[in-house]
Amino acid sequence: MCGIVGYVGKRNAAEILIDGLKRLEYRGYDSAGLALKTDKGLLILKEVGKVADLERMLQDRAPVSNQGIGHTRWATHGGVTLANAHPHKDGSGRFAIVHNGIIENFMDLKEELERDGVVFISETDTEAIVHLIARFYSETGDILATLVALQKKLRGSFALAMIQQDFPDRIYCVRKGSPLVIGSGNGESFCASDVPAFLPYTRNIQYLDEGDIAEISLQGIKIWDENGEPSEKPVVTVDWDVTMTEKSGFSHYMLKEIHEQGMVLRSTLKGRTADGRISIDQELGWDAETVSRWDKIHIVACGTSYYASLVAERVLEKWTDFDIKVDVASEYRYRHIRCDSSTLAIFVSQSGETADTIAAQRKARSEGAHCMAITNVRGSTLAREVHSVMLLKAGPEIGVAATKTFTGQMAALFLVALQLGRLRGTLSPEEEERLINEFLQIPYKVELLLEREQEIRGLAMNYADKSNFLFIGRGISFPIALEGALKLKEISYIHAEAYAAGEMKHGPIALLEPEVPVVAVIPRDGLYEKTLSNIQEAKARNAPLIAICTEGDTHIAKYVQAVVEIPWTDEEFTPFLTVVPLQFLAFHIALLKGKEIDQPRNLAKSVTVE
After folding, report:
1. Choosing from 50, 487, 489, 605, which is the catalytic residue?
2. What is the CATH code of the structural domain delimited by 3-245?
3. Is the predicted pLDDT of residue 43 greater than 70, yes or no?
4. Phi and psi of 501, rounded to 5°?
5. pLDDT at res. 174
6. What is the DSSP secondary structure assignment for residue 271, as one 8-state letter?
7. Which end of the chain is more exposed for a tag (fewer CB within 10 A), N or C?
8. Which of left, alpha, beta for 395 (phi over 0: left; psi -120 to 50: alpha)?
9. What is the pLDDT, as a whole number, of residue 283?
10. What is the CATH topology of the domain spanning 253-440?
């Protein structure tokens, strides 16, 4: 949930680290800090607030350094204070570390260290780590042995970067549970929580595995496993461009990413269909015999990824004959659900580093399931641990509230559903061709909707002062109602609930009054008339109504105050279109309310701890 960056090279380390922290600020923005190696020892600078606040401090100090580590924090242990901001140092001031993760045995370690006379100055679990490093190093005199011993002492998840004032041109990293990647350039090396931090300087990446220890230096990179044995990691050249991490003229990352959804769909579909047929056999490594061994599918995810999975559940039920189950990862990993070699378990995570999703995958794999990842990051932990992977090809998503990756996840899941339907023989060649032909038109229909942003902005102006919203939908539109409510909550802080429209009379109808707008997702589909009846129930309670409907629907206008039309498409593909107006509505309401859209309070992009 926090962002880590480290640099060793010939450039101004402070500038490199600040630039990296800005690119990682979606991971946390309570406080930020740097530890720089200077001629006078370690210089630690930190500030409560945004990275920009730290940058202003640096302008006054202008430190000279070619080596350092940085951190942007999402508070867990201890409040948002200067003392709790990273980096943290040991009592001698010789060691400094930054940390992403949670140390579960922190209190036991703290009590043990305090008995030895260690004085703590923060409330964080991280400070215990740096004191342990100093203790082990005083005993061994060897930094590799120190970091091997450290891992055996810690319980929990952690990604660490450490500098020591007596180590010239070297930074040490440890990774267990929380993400950490290494970058190598010409006479310079980097470490970070995520690739965008150093994307302007190198695209040559090495991904650390569980327990790995790394030394990054002017001479290059050395990696050892958790036992201190040398380990070779392949260098991967990422295909992301630095412009993908910039706003490109948009006011916010989220707005840019909403507008990229047509491109994301084209990219995700490219090369995966041919002549009206699905073409991902080699990518997934499946054939009819493989698929015949499965009789159930579990789809597991969190947050927005969970809602994309609920959409996919509907098409899998329609196009295949599997028994389908969708669950949130934080529940699935602790439930007693039958999962064995007859199970295809699909895990959906934008980052591929979501702690609960990774733990759920490990559980399913240990029980014999064939595990598949749908993720946006090729070298992520999830992608490296499963049997099959499908990438979204969405490029980096910086806005904390997911938009383009939600669309990409749905597209990838739909491709999987089509593939399974073909291999199982439950989808005829004629129907497969018809569906694929329409699927290929969806990017263009999304872009037609993007041109209607100002219309939805006008709608937002009418409702930005409301304190509560209700979103409703049926069938495949119900998960879109859930996603619409989530987006509004995340970035505007307005209370929003979403219900299956047929559940109105089972409780939600009690909420309705003139101050509670109802947003109804009601495309022309098999449940249109049922949803229309629910709209009439809301109208009878004098609730303002907004309908997301199919173009040419003149009937709906009789019952609602506002209409946003989507282009016609098959029922199965309506979620790709109905979600766009809801994203715009949330964005423009949040903008009118003056909220921090890209960095909403209390949230981080990737939840890498339980």
Report:
1. 605
2. 3.60.20.10
3. yes
4. -55, -30
5. 96
6. T
7. C
8. left
9. 92
10. Rossmann fold (3.40.50)
Q: How far is CA 49 from CA 32, 41, 54, 61, in A?
A: 7, 26, 8, 18
Which of 453, 8, 64, 18 has the alpha carbon at shortest distance from 187? 8
pLDDT score recorded for residue 604: 64
pLDDT at residue 172 tops 60: yes
Rounded Cα distance between 35 and 33, Å, is: 7
Amino acid at 504: M
Element (H, E) at 521: strand 518-522
At residue 421, what is the residue type? G
Rounded CA-CA distance 366/226 in Å is 22
Supply the DSSP symbol for 369. P
When computed from its CA atoms, the radius of gyration of the chain, rounded to whole angstroms, is: 25
Q: Which of 2, 173, 371, 549 is catalytic?
A: 2
Give 305-325 pLDDT, tens digit per residue.
Answer: 999 999 999 999 999 999 999
Residue 605: active-site member: yes
Q: How many Å apart are CA 503 and CA 481, to the nearest integer?
A: 13
Task: Identify the pLDDT of residue 458.
Answer: 94
User: Which element (helix H / strand E) includes 409?
Assistant: helix 404-424
The pLDDT, as a whole number, for residue 6 is 96
The segment(s) of the chain belonging to CATH 3.40.50.10490 are 253-440, 453-592
Closest CA to 538 of 455, 489, 469: 469
Name the DSSP class of 538.
Answer: H
Residue 606, pLDDT score: 63
What does the DSSP assignment read for 94-155? -EEEEEEEEETTHHHHHHHHHHTT----SS-SHHHHHHHHHHHHHHHS-HHHHHHHHHHH--
d(CA 45, CA 51): 12
- In this structure, CATH architecture of domain 453-592: 3-Layer(aba) Sandwich (3.40)
Examine the residue annotation and report whether 539 is marked as an active-site residue of this protein.
no
Whole-model pTM: value is 0.82
Q: Which residues pair with 98 in a beta bridge?
A: 161
Handedness of CA 228, 385, 97, 155 (dihedral sign): negative
Beta bridge partners of 468: 495
Whole-angstrom distance, CA of residue 209 vs CA of residue 231 = 10
Which residue shows structure tokens 């036991």? 108
Task: State the span(s) of the chain assigned CATH 3.60.20.10.
Answer: 3-245
Sheet containing 562-566: order of strands: 495-500, 468-473, 518-522, 545-550, 562-566
Do residues 549 and 523 touch, judged by C-beta distance below 8 A? yes
Checking if the pLDDT of 63 tops 80, the result is: yes
User: Can you say whether the dihedral through the CA atoms of 45, 50, 55, 57 is positive or negative?
Assistant: negative
